[in-house]
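Weekly modeling sync, notes
Attendees: S.R. (lead), two postdocs, one rotation student

Agenda item 3: backlog of single-chain predictions. S.R. asked that every request posted to the team notebook include the full sequence so nobody has to chase files. The rotation student volunteered to paste the first one in as an example of the format we agreed on. Action items at the bottom.

Example entry:
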Amino acid sequence: MNSYRAFDITAIVITLFVVLLPSPTREVRVEFDSAPRETLELVAALQAQTVARPDDLDTVVELTDVLIELGSLEAALRTVLGPADKLTGAWQVQLAAADAWVQDLEFKQALPYADAAVAACKGDSTCSSERAIRLAMFQNVISRVAKSNIDPRRQPEELRRLVAEVSPTIHLSDPDPKKRQQEPPEPPLPQPQ
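Predicted structure, as returned to the notebook:
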């Protein structure tokens, strides 16, 4: 019986090895293959810090921002959603979660986090009045897009139109270069003698 048991164990180990061993034809995708080495080192350091101190909100927000810049939206969402769901009173984390969802063009998922960021900002002394205004504008855009019937992936022009309508861009200088060329140049200032 001992030889049958040894054979069974050997067969199970070989089967597991074959099943779990990645196929040589399987393509492995490197998430940050085009990122500079310094950025990869920053991501690694921030990930290590979030594992060591999961309640360090500044690190969570910074890591989320770096991952968004790298285009790794899934990783950004995985990083920020846990802390955002636990710490509803932290406007910075709520803003990072809303931003990650917006970058993924998921406005309906972003809206609760944007609402939470605005609410948390009101009672937080670290949230300046200027920040509160920007958060309210951000939340307003997210709210309008979420409540519209626009599919951002299929209707990007409609999305741009709605965002421009909700949050118009103000040009401080005349954007028409031809008009600027037609204007007479200003006379030179008199030189002191």
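Discussion: group reviewed the output briefly. Residues 25-30 have pLDDT under 50 and may be disordered.
Action items: rotation student to repeat for the remaining queue; S.R. to check formatting next week.
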